[in-house]
Amino acid sequence: MGFSINSNYTGDHAGQYIGAALKSSKSLEFLTVLENIKFKRNISKVSTTNMIKDATCDFVDAGTLTLTERVLTPKALEINVDLCKKDLLQDFQSAQMTAGRHNDGMSDDFAAFVMSYLSSTIADYVETNIWAGNGGTNEFTGFMHPTDGTFAGDTLVEVDNTLGAGSGYTVASIDDDLNALVNAIPSALYRKEDLYIYMSVSSYRLYLANQANSGYQRLFNMNDDFVPMFNGVKIAVCPGMVENKMIAAQQSNLFFGTDLVSDHTELKMLDMGDLDGSDNIRVVAKFTAGCQHAQGGEIVRID
Question: By the 8 A CB rule, do 89 and 2 touch?
């Protein structure tokens, strides 16, 4: 091929590449992202009752403060893949090489290009697992897996699908389901700045179609400054969200954890030409990812 590439990054350098890929997941825009978790991190939950009382001259203990914790433990994950240099070079050269420029010195940028090439794979994986991952083989634990998600072991505010349990949303029903969801949001949370309705892309399309059918302006023609909302609550459109389910929650109550700078964050690219004569590049990427929520009683879910 006229050049070779053998790159071995660990720690912070690898974290720059992998971090960019992880953050391509759309859902992370609406979650609280915790970085630099080496092993695990405790998510504190604080609740109080009867803390305020009439003033007196004496100190009289009153009220109860309860502190409980949830643990966010990111799971170690990796990518092991062979990529063909011939296929990659065609894309790389067309994107990077200017007229009259030769291929000498190209290896310095090629490692970044290969990681960019894999970014969509990592982003799609993270996006899906955030909501549906069960923590089993090749997955990290997400929020909404029915038996193993972080929500499964907690008590949420539950709302029934207006068409019946297990039914899918429709253009005609999506407005009623959103109303039911918003009406169940605890008063203390409603109008919080970081409160969102989390829904899938297909549910959002039904919502837009419903608005158009009702005679409202065609919201999908709005510019980038448009913030989708329903009855005063912002909408977070998450491609990995479980279909036919929605939740309302604060961004500060939903956490994604990773470690982008530890010695376990690693990126290796090995040119196999010197070893077996092939045109393959072997890529190894190691990183961590995991999810956790804090207050289940402040999350509203409609099934």
Answer: no
The string of pLDDT tens digits covering residues 49-100 is 677 777 888 777 776 665 567 889 999 998 888 888 777 777 666 555 544 4
Query: Hey, which residues does 229 pair with through a beta bridge?
Result: 234
Counting every residue written for the chain, the total comes to 303
> Beta strand 300-302 with 195-199: parallel, antiparallel or unpaired?
unpaired
Backbone angles phi, psi at 55, to 5 degrees: -75, 140
**Measured in whole angstroms, how far is the alpha carbon of residue 121 from the centre of its chain?**
14
Q: Can you give the pTM of this predicted structure?
A: 0.82
For tokens 């297990």, the residue is 166
**Rounded Cα gap, residues 183 and 121, in angstroms:** 38
The model's pLDDT over 107-164, given as tens digits with 9 standing for 90+, comes to: 656 766 777 777 788 889 999 999 999 999 999 999 999 999 999 989 999 999 988 8
DSSP state of 283: E
The residue type of 98 is T
Alpha helices, DSSP H, located in the chain = 11-22, 85-96, 107-132, 174-183, 201-213, 273-276
> Does residue 129 contact residue 27 with C-beta atoms inside 8 Å?
no
Q: 202: burial class by Cβ within 10 Å (0-12, 13-18, 19+)? A: middle
Distances (CA, A) of 248 to 30, 33, 209: 12, 18, 21
Closest to 282 in 3D by CA, of 14, 3, 1, 5: 5
